[in-house]
Design brief:
Strand order of the largest sheet: 1-8-7-6
Strand content: 15-25%
Number of domains: 2
Distance between the termini: 40 Å
CATH class of the largest domain: Alpha Beta
Order of helices and strands: HEEHEEHEEHEEH
């Protein structure tokens, strides 16, 4: 491998140049050209994340969470206890984790929520969000910001974004 800084020929697979000690690790990172590729690799998730998403506490009832989801017309609520995301309750959780014919009046969110959900930093790229959602099979990702506030990004948000930049 030829060092881009000093031109020295190095052993393939080296982490640094043997002469100038320049690191090679950033050479494997793809660099966007322009247009759609640049948008998806460089635009941050904060551009499309919904700020202040619907949220409940783990001790709240499932019926309260359902009411909030209907009121806000959203597919999920974040479960936040003591200022930390402890879970997420989505339509999928309601369909597959809630016992059939159950009374939601007394059932707690903590009984059917997805605990410790994957989160994404607000400065992460669209490509990284798509990657996480694809690998994990998620339809919603909680977004963490520097000021400790929360947001949410859904697959619908990402598809709308992709549609705007493809057409």
């Amino acid at each position: 491998m030829k060092c881009p800084s000093c031109g020295t020929e190095n052993i393939e697979g080296s982490d640094r140049c043997e002469v100038c000690m320049e690191p090679f690790q950033k050479l494997d990172i793809p660099h966007p050209k322009e247009g759609f590729q640049a948008h998806i690799m460089l635009d941050s998730i904060k551009d499309i994340a919904t700020p202040n998403p619907a949220s409940v506490k783990s001790s709240d009832t499932v019926s309260h969470a359902i009411h909030l989801m209907r009121e806000r017309r959203t597919g999920c609520v974040l479960v936040i206890d003591d200022g930390k995301i402890v879970g997420i309750l989505s339509e999928v959780d309601l369909l597959f984790r809630m016992p059939a014919e159950s009374d939601t009046a007394g059932m707690k969110v903590s009984q059917i929520m997805t605990s410790n959900p994957e989160t994404i930093d607000e400065d992460a790229s669209m490509a990284y969000a798509l990657h996480l959602m694809s690998i994990g099979g998620y339809r919603h990702l909680p977004v963490l910001s520097e000021n400790r506030s929360f947001g949410i990004v859904s697959i619908k948000d990402l598809l709308r974004y992709l549609n705007r930049h493809l057409v």
